[in-house]
Amino acid sequence: TITIDVHNSSIQAVSDSDVTVYEKALDLNQDGQDLAPGTVTGSLPGNTGETASGTLVGSVSGAVGAITYTLVGSATGTYGQILLNPDGSYTYTLTSPPSTTPQANDGANTLSETFTYQATDALGNSTTSTIVVNIVDDLPTAHADETSVAEGGTVSGNVLWNDVGGADGLAAGGAVVGVRAGSDTSTSAVGGLNTQINGTYGYLTLDANGNAVYHSNPNAVSGPGATDV
């Protein structure tokens, strides 16, 4: 007597979320391991963090024999492209900045993009799960501005000329949200635009578009010179 026991397949797959890419690394070139060029430039375009690779090996259990991995749906996502190989290795390239509310574009925010994959074993049993790609938001970078003026005089300029907007770009309605006297940058400056900000030797006015005017008070400086921050 030959007895053959037949068991139902219990192949299962779990979601993979080990890969992280960085919006700040976006650039207009397709280089290195990139699957496609970016549509904008981030704050650190020389970085290669817009592309990352991972593997689904270890994500599937209960399979019989070799496992073949395929993508379910389009390889072009909302923010980038993915390439999934039959052996489970994959590469994702971020090509455009994720569209989020202004409050979410704070650098600490991590968004994600999801793709569905199918795993099929040697007996033809299959299951599906997801690849979740983590996307770290970009931040604008501000640089200090410096100029000089004669005592009692006025000087003007734009504080945004040497700043970097990042992948999200500067806000169309005005990138500057606040100003205050002093050199403390540990917290954000909010408010004070289009008003007189008094310093030690004069006062400053600044608008949302970065236009700044400094008025030096006459006879306020003793000695060869002074600095107002």
- CATH C-level name of the largest domain: Mainly Beta
- Report the mean per-residue pLDDT as an integer: 89
Number of strands: 13
- In DSSP terms (H or I, runs of 4 or more residues), the helix count works out at 0
What is the end-to-end distance? 95 Å
What's the helical proportion of residues?
A: under 10%
* CATH arch. level architecture of the largest domain: Sandwich
Task: Kindly provide the radius of gyration, computed on alpha-carbon positions and rounded to a whole number of angstroms.
Answer: 27 Å
Give the strand line-up of the largest sheet: 2-9-8-5
Q: Provide the CATH superfamily of the largest domain.
A: Immunoglobulins
The largest sheet, given as strand count, sense and whether it forms a barrel, is: 4 strands, mixed
Structural classification: mainly beta
Could you give the topology of this structure?
Blueprint: E1 12-13, E2 20-22, E3 51-55, E4 60-61, E5 68-72, E6 80-84, E7 89-94, E8 110-120, E9 126-136, E10 154-158, E11 197-198, E12 202-206, E13 211-216
Parallel strand pairs: 2-9
Antiparallel strand pairs: 1-4, 3-7, 5-8, 6-7, 8-9, 10-13, 11-12, 12-13
Summarize this structure briefly.
It is built from no helices and 13 strands. It is mainly beta and 229 residues long. The protein has two domains: 12-136, Immunoglobulins (Immunoglobulin-like); 140-229, no CATH class.
